[in-house]
Design goal:
This protein is α/β, with parallel strands linked by helices. It has a single domain (about 1-85, about 150-230), classed as 3-Layer(aba) Sandwich (Rossmann fold). Helices cover about 40% and strands about 25% of the residues. The protein has helices at about 40-50, 70-75, 90-100, 105-120, 120-125, 135-150, 165-180, 195-200, 215-220, 225-230; strands at about 1-10, 15-25, 30-35, 50-60, 60-65, 75-80, 155-160, 185-190, 200-205, 210-215. The strands form 2 sheets. It has a 6-stranded mixed β-sheet with strand order 6-7-8-3-9-10, with helices on both faces. It has a 4-stranded antiparallel β-sheet with strand order 2-1-4-5, covered by helices on one side. Helix 7 (about 165-180) links the parallel strand 7 (about 155-160) and strand 8. Helix 3 (about 90-100) packs parallel to helix 6. The structure holds adenosine-5'-triphosphate (ATP). Adenosine-5'-triphosphate binds near residues 16, 36, 37 and 41.
């Protein structure tokens, strides 16, 4: 469904990712793990169309090179960015409506918003409050819900657990697990290795812009040396 081939990602003159190849099949949860500065966000940003790149990104068979950010969204790519980038001055409901900006089925949009308000009553109770008043975990739920409002074919999740208390993290991972069970294709960037391995069908380990290892999640989970490298716990 998504195929990155010899992908290099640039921030101005800086090459952050040095020619990586990644495949995500429909219905899979693929996890991109690695330390700070490895190039995970750069990779996901290139897929979303917000970072310059060389090499190819193909989605459902089509090369995305000349495709704008908006058209990538229309094609079914949604990004839930790192750092809970909600529109804090807009209400919870307005944030969700922005996520649906590429859709024209207004009635279905309203029904999807109501679905989120039922699934996460705290969002429903605060629907008319500015999103900035939500807690960190609630904002993370809103970030994911907003991305899903575009009815994507693939969800790019950038460090959804970052900065959240352990209990809230578990709620976020429960949501991701439910999405996976519902058949959503997910590319998950995480530093929370154990939870990411728990969810992932396939794992790529990124180090300094290169893929240093890849494999089935069992391969990673059962390799003590690799786990030590990933978690820093020896
Ligand atoms: P983190 O977990 O800290 O977000 P990451 O694996 O997502 O790390 P990236 O954010 O992709 O890593 O960063 C990869 C490299 O690119 C780093 O060396 C970083 O300093 C550099 N970089 C990222 N964004 C920019 C930018 N806007 N301008 C210049 N350099 C950047």
């Amino acid at each position: 469904m998504l195929e990155l081939t010899h992908l290099k990602v640039f921030h101005g003159p800086i090459e952050a990712v040095h020619g990586i190849s990644i495949t995500v099949q429909r219905g899979q949860c693929v996890s991109l793990l690695g330390p700070n500065g490895a190039g995970k966000t750069s990779t996901i940003s290139a897929i979303a169309g917000i970072a310059d790149y060389q090499g190819s990104i193909r989605f459902q068979g089509a090369d995305l090179a000349a495709i704008s950010v908006e058209d990538r969204q229309r094609a079914g790519i949604a990004l839930a960015p790192e750092g809970r980038r909600i529109f804090s001055n807009l209400t919870v409901k307005e944030n969700l409506l922005i996520g649906a900006a590429t859709r024209h089925d207004r009635r279905a949009v309203r029904s999807d918003i109501n679905h989120w308000f039922e699934s996460f009553p705290v969002l429903g109770e605060r629907r008319d409050q500015s999103a900035g008043t939500l807690s960190g975990g609630e904002q993370q739920m809103l970030t994911i819900a907003r991305a899903l409002m575009s009815k994507p074919q693939i969800l790019l999740l950038d460090e959804p657990s970052l900065g959240l208390a352990p209990l809230i993290c578990q709620q976020v991972f429960r949501l991701i697990k439910e999405l996976k069970s519902s058949g959503m294709t997910i590319l998950l960037v995480e530093q929370n290795v154990r939870d990411a391995l728990d969810l992932a069908d396939y794992v790529y380990l990124l180090n300094s812009g290169h893929i240093s290892n890849e494999g089935d999640h069992n391969v990673f989970g059962n390799d003590a040396n690799l786990m030590a490298e990933l978690t820093g716990i020896h």
